[in-house]
Specification:
mainly beta; four-stranded antiparallel β-sheet; 39% strand; globular
């Protein structure tokens, strides 16, 4: 409890002396960074800051700022990289050792739907394909990305994602979505084809986060 309180307090002090003085800015996401010898975590905020913390020393190591609200940060499972998701639909890829932007993912604004056009709340890296990840948000699409190109390679239409409602099964073959909508809130999709495999009745939505975990456990046994 002491560490949690201290991290919150120090992040507040940093923001207070940043570009929004005298404002207590909400944190929207926090994650412990994997595959590092040091105890590090990332936190993002509605004023566009991303803070890298040293948990043991209880201090901010590095800060970056984006000119937008940030809703989520997602770390790569093996590489020293993370992505940030925000209100403008653009996805930022960072090097987590230098905190420098490596790539920005956005639509090409051509006749192809190859990027998000509204807020993005969820993303997950593919567990087996090193350069792939998917994302979802308010524009009712799940976008498929290759980290080496700035536009999405394909998409699934349908799920209205308002939180961390996207996941990929450990085998990399199925996608699970949890959507904010009247029907078919929880759905399983084929990763390779984008085709719908299964939709669940609406009464499952009351425990959406638990359903995501349970479904992935069931799938992993197949």
């Amino acid at each position: 409890m002491t560490t949690t309180h201290s991290l919150y307090h120090q992040s507040y002090l940093h923001i207070k002396h940043g570009r929004k003085p005298h404002v207590n800015v909400p944190a929207t996401s926090c994650l412990v960074m994997p595959n590092t010898e040091e105890s590090r975590c990332l936190a993002c905020y509605t004023d566009g800051h991303v803070n890298l913390f040293d948990i043991d020393k209880e201090k901010i190591i590095e800060t970056v700022s984006e000119e937008r609200q940030i809703f989520n940060v997602v770390h790569h499972p093996s590489d020293p990289q993370f992505i940030s998701l925000g209100e403008d639909g653009i996805i930022f890829l960072y090097d987590s050792t230098t905190m420098k932007v490596l790539m920005k993912y956005r639509p090409s604004f051509t006749n192809r739907l190859d990027g998000h056009t509204s807020r993005v709340f969820a993303a997950v890296f593919h567990p087996r394909n090193h350069n792939e990840f998917i994302s979802g948000g308010w524009d009712n699409t799940i976008m498929f990305w290759d980290t080496r190109t700035s536009h999405a390679v394909r998409f699934i239409a349908g799920p209205h994602i308002c939180g961390e409602g996207v996941d990929i099964n450990w085998n990399g073959k199925e996608i699970l979505t949890a959507a904010y909508q009247q029907r078919e809130q929880t759905q399983i999709w084929d990763y390779s084809t984008g085709k719908l495999i299964l939709s669940n009745p609406s009464y499952f939505v009351e425990n959406g986060c638990l359903i995501i975990t349970l479904w992935l456990e069931v799938l992993s046994q197949d």
